[in-house]
Amino acid sequence: MTLSYDDALARDAADPLGGYRDAFHRHADPVAYLDGNSLGRPPKATLDRVTRAIDRDWGERLIRGWEEGWSERAETLGNLLASACLGAAPGQTVVTDSTSVNLYKVVYAACDLQGGRDEIVIDDGNFPTDRYLVESVARARGMYVRWLSPDPIAGVTHRDLSAALSPQTAVVVLSHVDYRSGAIADLPGLTRLAHDAGALVVWDVCHSAGVLPIDLDRFGVDFAVGCTYKYLNAGPGAPAFLYVAARLLPDVRQPIPGWWSARDVFAMADTYEPALDARRMLSGSPNILGMIGVEEGVRLVERAGIDAIRAKAADLTGMCVDLVDAWLAPRGFAVVSPRDAAARGGHVSIQGPGARKLRDKMVAAGVIPDFRNPDTIRLGLSPLSTSYAELWTAMDTIRSIVGR
């Protein structure tokens, strides 16, 4: 039997995370916002903190702010994020730059550790930035790119990776959650497989940070990068983060060293000596105002608990799949995400006739999804800010549109 609106309301009443919806700013709210996997809603606390920071931290304290906590912000916030979202011990994570810059840094640094090996492995369905940057690093270092072509729904499997690994494989670059289908890659198993072949692994966790447990330390991950403006709700263009395993830090040399990565930032030394911890991966001065959004978003995840967030994500996406099957499949639409909740992240993708036009009609009706060329609509379900009733209303609106 198809879930009713009253059923959705009952789920909201029993939802242990339901109260977190009140933590987000809502002005002229749409009927339903289903794009939190691209840009999360703004936490109310972020708006207050930014105002106070401009008025007091910057406006009153001025440059003294660097001596009053700003200088350590990339590391302290990195440690908070690592503990709340990444399953990582202190000293291995920094908040800095964009995902693109961070990915270039860690892929280049990983290749640098693998002298004598000249291949980088990546799948041809990975996010464009990841593919472009891997090709750029390969050109700069005189290396080769070996491409995987995984199933577009299931993502990279052990068989896919095994077929590509060789004695020349230096680095493998993978996404934890596929940005199109939402498929969750087997992070521990694929990492182990690459290590058995002598390769290092770089994981892109943009679509899993803040919605899935990751456990980087436990599973022996080498490098990871991610953004903060999706499930961490840090705001458009907010600083990203990178992780380098402690066992690799003493030998890591990044390609964009700046004064902020020096062992003594303010020594202005004639020769470069990198910091001993993950700060060696920094380049220029940190984005202090941008980090406020990161901190408040991570604090919400920390309070809610990543396991509770994961449980609601599985439930929301399951409800979405059921409603697509009941209401949209008869109109030619299909789920192009894994049907097993254990294999699916925080969004559900659908395909069908006239998907682009449907997306435009959805937006006009107040339901905001995401669209990916050529014909995929992504329904992003951010557990801290999305209610069951909101999802039900969105799906009912889509049903009405396609039924016309």
Automatic annotation (TrEMBL):
Pathway: Cofactor biosynthesis; NAD(+) biosynthesis; quinolinate from L-kynurenine: step 2/3; Amino-acid degradation; L-kynurenine degradation; L-alanine and anthranilate from L-kynurenine: step 1/1. It comes from the Bacteria. GO terms for cellular component: cytoplasm. GO terms for molecular function: kynureninase activity; pyridoxal phosphate binding; transaminase activity. It catalyses: L-kynurenine + H2O = anthranilate + L-alanine + H(+); 3-hydroxy-L-kynurenine + H2O = 3-hydroxyanthranilate + L-alanine + H(+). Its cofactor is pyridoxal 5'-phosphate. Pfam families: Aminotran_5. Its EC number is 3.7.1.3. The keyword Cell membrane does not apply. Keywords: Aminotransferase, Hydrolase, Pyridine nucleotide biosynthesis, Pyridoxal phosphate, Transferase. Residues 86-348 form the Aminotransferase class V domain. One of its GO terms (biological process) is anthranilate metabolic process. Catalyzes the cleavage of L-kynurenine (L-Kyn) and L-3-hydroxykynurenine (L-3OHKyn) into anthranilic acid (AA) and 3-hydroxyanthranilic acid (3-OHAA), respectively. Homodimer. Belongs to the kynureninase family. This is Kynureninase. It comes from Solicola gregarius. The lineage of its organism: Bacteria, Bacillati, Actinomycetota, Actinomycetes, Propionibacteriales.
